[in-house]
Amino acid sequence: MGWLWAIIVGFVLGLLAKAIIPGKQHSPLWLTTLFGILGAIAGNAIARAAGVDATRGIDWWRHVFQLVAAIVIVAVGDALYRATLGKRKQRA
Asked: Residue 70's closest CA among 44, 39, 45, 47?
């Protein structure tokens, strides 16, 4: 069940990051989900390092760190995707 939640959270974080980043992103949905999962992992690590990973109630700061990490990872990952595979698809 943990993997299912990771995929769902990664999917949601990836879509939110794509919605926040201005302009059009060209990475496919499966890659956006993977970027969202990586953002969740990185955000959890940053929250743990900041000491806000486990608070009473909803962990708002942990979610903020996850979203910011997902935004950065989606932006960088999409740029790398476009620079490598995306250009080959545009030429075809």
From this structure: 39
* Alpha-carbon gap, residue 17 to 27, rounded angstroms: 12
pTM (two decimals): 0.85
- 4-42 burial, b at 16+ Cβ within 10 Å, e below that, comes to eeeeebbbebbbbbbeeeeeebebeeebbbbbbbbbbbb
Rounded to whole angstroms, the Cα distance separating 39 from 57 reads 22
Residue with the two structure tokens 């950065």: 72
Whole-number Å distance between alpha carbons of 61 and 4: 23
What one-letter code names the amino acid at 6?
A
Alpha carbon 67 to its chain's center? 7
* pLDDT tens, position by position, 21-68: 998 888 899 999 999 999 999 999 999 998 887 778 888 888 899 999
Question: Cβ atoms within 10 A of the Cβ of 77, count?
Answer: 21
